[in-house]
Amino acid sequence: MFSKTLRKDNYGYLFIAPFFITFLVFGLYPILYSLYLSFTDWDGFGNPTIIGFENYQRLVGDFFFYKSLFNTLAIWIVSVIPQLTVSLVLAVILHEKFVKGKSFFRAVFFFPNIVTAASLGLLVALIFSWQTGSFNQFLMGLGIIDDPIHWTDKPNFMRGLVSSILFWQYFGYSMIIYIAGLQGISRDLLEAAEMDGASKVRVFFSITLPLLKPIILFQVITSIIGGMQIFDQPYTLTNGSGQPDNATLTSVMYLYDTAFTRYQYGYGSAIAFGLFLVIVVFSILSFKMMNIRTKNEPN
Q1: How many helices and strands in the chain, by DSSP H and E?
Q2: Which residues form the ABC transmembrane type-1 domain (predicted)?
Q3: Which of 108, 225, 236, 254 could form a disulfide bond with 121, CB atoms 3.0-4.6 angstroms apart?
């Protein structure tokens, strides 16, 4: 009897084996190999030369790494705060019973998420082109400006433009996640509060928002992970240059440029692990902040 049970378990291992094999080959092995490369000097030809912690020492004093990190954080903050706020408001509205055509509006708001990031970057680059862009033509047609404005020469404007693309692309996705969280809250609880005389606003801040905290934490952490990996939008928008004045040079763009344009694979790997460390730190801080707020709230 024992041997038959053991045989059935072995069949189970066969079914889950493809996932683990795929993960080991295409997930864990590249991670460990890039960790090894971060301690080497390698241009892609010949054998890597072990140089110890030299790449990490260089990373600590690298101006462009800090510049790219600042750009990434600035773009992420400007995009994620309105993204999570607007998506929460829309989710609450579209979760109400009285709203007609909820499915239509959910689909419309989610639509930008299915457009590829590279396509969006190219489209926006064409719209804001200095010489042929439709935005300049529109403003000149209205008489607001007399001559075309070179939008791509303005660092803060370009950062804001990348943030706007990210906001427009992902607010629908965040809205769907919030709606899923709202559907997990008991209607009886909300209706009981309203019967006791609580207004809609009071119900939202006293019941809905506290019960949504796990969803908000999930949104924040996933947005940190995604935000620190911004690449496609600024890359296609600036044709890979990260200009003007390296204002749109994100950390992943700098990693890509170092490893695959200048063929410094060892240093590129060190940048990747530096970025990984930043993501871990921000994720832990977000988790701690949410936990502190929960503990400080009255039961």
Answers
A1: 15, 2
A2: 69-286
A3: 236
